[in-house]
Every structure is written in structure tokens, then in C-alpha cells.
């Protein structure tokens, strides 16, 4: 007889494991299906984010930034360091140990909350309003489980170029790009999105000559134009080569490396020769093999599960969250949707505001924003006022030597309500939360301006940007 559960979650990434934990907290008998294995063929929880995404990339970003700082950032502090050496094996081992600690932490949380981990990959076998039968496949072995409620959290995978095989040795997606055994002399990156910029930054700091090829005509088109322009200047000064408006014609792998034939924004044929190539052109949802057709689950032409504003699918008692549904493919968005769905199942009435989800790119300096860009406001015909303030005259930023960037706040011209905040700075990922909180509570720029901010802190720049909307900045 197969096991029966109140809630079964398919996938244990950030959305899935959080959904399982919250469901268990609410008293449901809960199981989570996950069959992902690391290179050592060990079953691991955490999905792409913890294993080959957010967590390992941030570990390498921190290590590579420390290496570059020792080489170039200490002299102004009166500190001279000679003979700094890179031990890439040790750096990679540190990254792997952090990943291992995090994934084991989820295992502990599953045991603590009495969540059953079903080893394998899940698919619908049958079901309807009375419940669902799910098939769990692990190394050819199959078992079935019963679920009253199902939460689909199968995440996404890297999109690859047509006719360009990814071997994760020479041509890599995010998984291979996190596991280089040596620093490539020349590295090509196709795609100037979040992953491309972050991984390109890692290997540039460690000594690679990096060229980023972007198909879109503008750099970071999703970001506010003023932030994108300033970031492009900073990255160019750092030595990160970025070309926009290109068209990839052909990718050829050789024993000695990879050759990318492309057409630049002026229509001229170009050739990029590199030791390794990272393909970072977005991600696609993991819905193949889910058994959607078997039970009539609606999946659109791009592979996304169709849901309403509360993550309900067209099937009774079946929900879908995270990268597998509409909206930004962000771990924190998936986590909050996991909580939302578990609480809906429990009969609660949770709330989630998709307009206040922060975006973060962990380059150096970091780029973060929440809400609308100035160009979006213009396109929508929304009259706004903007305030901007640089870190270059902030005492705390000067003390740490992290003076690049600025804060920009956008407010409705009629109501002063904050509709967007955009930050370029080494600590943008932390500073953006003031904008998120203000917008979540429908706050005004004047609210930020009137709140006492500690001195000396980087947060004072946020306040000065709010004051700048009325041309009353106190320190400029």
C-alpha cells in the first residue's frame, strides 16, 4: 500500500522546501519529492539555488573579491601585501563546504518538522478532486504516494543555444562555470544577465580576460537607465568587456578552446576565441516529465504551469510556485510563494505583493532595485519626481573605500508615494530592503526623509536621495 500525505511538494529548491516546512508547521502530514544528485552522486536537497546557483556563486564572488582586494584594494589603506597567491582548489573546496552545510541544514529542518523526503523525481499518475496519485522514480525504481494537495515546485534549468551542446567542460552553463579547475586565460560569456555578469565577474577577478556578448541592444535593459549606464562604466573600468546588440552565428569547439562567430551591432562579422565559453541566455521551466497531460494540468507554450494570482492551477488542490510559474525567476519570490500556498491550504488569507519583489545582481558594485524604473513610469504616463545621491560623499563609504554608485528614488508626483528605488553600490543587496519595506507599507519619500538614520552609515545615502526629491539634501 502506498503512503498517503496531506501535502506533497514536488521539488526541494527554495520554493519547495520552504513550502514543505510551512505546511508541516501548520499541522499537515507533508512529504517532499527530490532526486537531484551532486557530482558525487549523493542525493541533495536545495535545488539549483543551493547546489549550483545562488549559494555557490555568492561564495565564489566573495572569495574572488577578497583576492582582488588583496591585490589592488589595500594600498590606499596604507597596507602593502606582496606575493598573494591563488589556490583555486581550496577556494572551490570552501564553496563546496558551504553548499554541503546548507543542504545538510535543510535535511535537519525536514527531520525537525517531520517531513518525509521521498528520494526521486515526481510525476502525476492519476487523480482529481478527491486526491492525486504521484509516481516517484529513483534510479529506475518506482513507488507511488497519495496526496490530497500537491505543490509543484520543480524549478528551472539553463536555456541552451540551438545546436550548441553544453558539455560543462568547454561550453558551460551555470553548473560548469562554477566548477572550473583552472582559471581560463580567455573566457567568453554569452548573455549579460544576472548569471552571466556574476560568473564573468568571478573569473575576471581571478585573472581571466572576459568578454561578454549580449544580444539585446541595451546593457541591463531591465534596470533603470541611469543605473545601467553607470554600472557599464564601472565594469568597463574594471576590465569586463561587454558588447551589446550582437548576433551569435556559430559556436565551434576545438581541442584548444571555443570559437564564437558573431555579428556586432554595426553588422560586421566578428570572431571571439576563448578557452571556455559560458552560455547564460536565461532559464526555462522544468515541466517535462511532470505528467501534466495525464491529469490535464494546463502548461503554456513556453512550459510554464498556468496559475492565478494565488498560485492555483486549473486542477483542484494543485498549486505551482517559483520558476515554474509566471513572474521573476528569483529564489526569494519562490520562497514567499511557498509560504503563501501552504497558508492558503490551511484556510488562511495570506498576502504577497509582486510589485515589491527586489532584484539583485551580486557584481561589484552590486545592483539592486525594487518597483518601477524611470523609463517604465514614462511609458505608463505616470508623472514622477526623482531624487538621487552618490556614495562618493558619504562618510561611511569613504571610510571603507566603497564609494562607487548612488541611490535613486522615484516617487509619484501627486502623492509622493515611492514607486521605485534603485541602488548601485557594494552593499546594494542589503540597502534595497528599506525601499522594499517602504513600498510594502505604501510609504512616501517624505517618510524616508523624516526617519532618523544612524550616522555614519551607508543608509544615510538612501535618506539623502529621498531629501533630494525636494532639492533639500543636507550633504550636497
From TrEMBL:
Residues 5-338 form the FAD/NAD(P)-binding domain. Keywords: Cytoplasm, Disulfide bond, FAD, Flavoprotein, NAD, Nucleotide-binding, Oxidoreductase, Redox-active center. Its cofactor is FAD. This is Dihydrolipoyl dehydrogenase. The active site is a redox-active disulfide bond. The active site is at 455 (proton acceptor). Residues 357-466 form the Pyridine nucleotide-disulphide oxidoreductase dimerisation domain. Binds 1 FAD per subunit. FAD binds at residues 58, 122, 154-156, 323, 329-332. It comes from the Bacteria. One of its GO terms (molecular function) is flavin adenine dinucleotide binding. It comes from Usitatibacter rugosus. It catalyses: N(6)-[(R)-dihydrolipoyl]-L-lysyl-[protein] + NAD(+) = N(6)-[(R)-lipoyl]-L-lysyl-[protein] + NADH + H(+). GO terms for biological process: 2-oxoglutarate metabolic process. GO terms for cellular component: cytoplasm. It is an enzyme of class 1 (oxidoreductase). Its EC number is 1.8.1.4. SUPFAM superfamilies: FAD/NAD(P)-binding domain, FAD/NAD-linked reductases, dimerisation (C-terminal) domain. Disulfide bonds join 49-54. The gene is lpd. It is found in: Cytoplasm. NAD(+) binds at residues 191-198, 214, 282. Its main location: cytoplasm. Belongs to the class-I pyridine nucleotide-disulfide oxidoreductase family. Gene3D superfamilies: 3.30.390.30, FAD/NAD(P)-binding domain.
Amino acid at each position: 500500500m502506498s503512503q498517503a500525505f496531506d501535502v506533497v511538494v514536488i521539488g526541494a529548491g527554495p520554493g519547495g522546501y520552504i513550502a514543505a516546512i510551512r505546511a508541516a508547521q501548520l499541522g499537515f502530514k507533508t512529504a517532499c519529492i527530490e532526486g537531484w544528485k551532486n557530482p558525487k552522486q549523493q542525493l541533495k536537497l536545495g535545488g539549483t539555488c543551493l547546489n549550483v546557483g545562488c549559494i555557490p556563486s555568492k561564495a565564489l564572488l566573495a572569495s574572488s573579491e577578497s583576492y582582488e582586494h588583496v591585490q589592488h584594494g589595500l594600498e590606499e589603506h596604507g597596507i602593502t601585501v606582496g606575493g598573494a597567491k591563488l589556490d583555486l582548489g581550496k577556494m572551490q573546496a570552501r564553496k563546496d563546504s558551504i553548499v554541503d552545510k546548507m543542504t545538510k541544514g535543510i535535511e535537519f529542518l525536514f527531520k525537525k518538522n517531520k517531513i518525509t523526503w521521498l528520494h526521486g523525481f515526481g510525476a502525476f499518475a492519476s487523480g482529481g478532486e478527491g486526491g492525486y496519485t504521484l509516481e516517484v522514480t529513483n534510479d529506475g525504481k518506482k513507488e507511488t504516494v497519495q496526496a490530497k494537495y500537491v505543490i509543484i515546485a520543480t524549478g528551472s534549468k539553463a536555456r541552451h543555444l540551438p545546436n550548441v551542446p553544453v558539455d560543462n567542460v568547454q561550453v558551460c552553463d551555470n553548473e560548469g562555470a562554477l566548477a572550473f579547475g583552472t582559471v581560463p586565460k580567455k573566457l567568453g560569456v554569452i548573455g549579460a544577465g544576472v548569471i552571466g555578469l556574476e560568473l564573468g565577474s568571478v573569473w575576471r577577478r581571478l585573472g581571466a580576460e572576459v568578454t561578454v556578448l549580449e544580444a539585446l541592444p541595451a546593457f541591463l535593459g531591465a534596470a533603470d537607465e541611469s543605473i545601467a549606464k553607470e554600472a557599464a562604466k564601472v565594469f568597463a573600468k574594471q576590465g569586463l568587456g561587454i558588447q551589446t546588440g550582437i548576433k551569435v552565428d556559430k559556436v565551434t569547439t576545438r581541442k584548444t578552446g571555443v570559437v564564437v562567430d558573431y555579428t556586432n551591432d554595426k553588422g560586421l562579422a566578428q570572431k571571439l576565441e576563448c578557452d571556455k565559453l559560458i552560455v547564460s541566455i536565461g532559464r526555462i521551466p522544468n515541466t517535462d516529465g511532470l505528467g501534466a497531460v495525464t491529469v490535464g494540468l494546463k502548461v503554456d507554450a513556453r512550459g510554464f504551469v498556468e496559475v492565478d494570482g494565488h498560485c492555483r492551477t486549473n486542477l483542484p488542490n494543485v498549486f505551482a510556485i517559483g520558476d515554474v510559474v509566471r513572474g521573476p525567476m528569483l529564489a526569494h519570490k519562490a520562497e514567499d510563494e511557498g509560504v503563501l500556498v501552504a497558508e492558503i491550504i490551511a484556510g488562511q488569507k495570506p498576502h504577497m505583493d509582486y510589485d515589491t519583489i527586489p532584484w539583485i545582481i551580486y557584481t561589484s558594485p552590486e545592483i539592486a532595485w525594487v518597483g518601477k524604473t524611470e523609463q517604465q513610469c514614462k511609458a505608463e504616463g505616470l508623472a514622477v519626481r526623482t531624487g538621487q545621491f552618490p556614495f562618493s560623499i558619504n562618510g561611511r563609504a569613504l571610510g571603507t573605500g566603497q564609494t562607487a554608485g548612488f541611490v535613486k528614488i522615484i516617487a509619484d508626483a501627486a502623492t509622493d508615494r515611492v514607486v521605485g528605488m534603485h541602488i548601485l553600490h557594494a552593499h546594494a543587496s542589503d540597502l534595497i530592503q528599506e525601499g522594499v519595506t517602504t513600498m510594502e507599507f505604501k510609504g512616501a519619500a517624505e517618510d524616508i526623509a523624516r526617519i532618523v538614520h544612524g550616522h555614519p552609515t551607508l543608509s544615510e545615502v538612501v535618506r539623502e536621495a529621498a531629501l533630494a526629491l525636494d532639492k533639500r539634501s543636507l550633504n550636497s
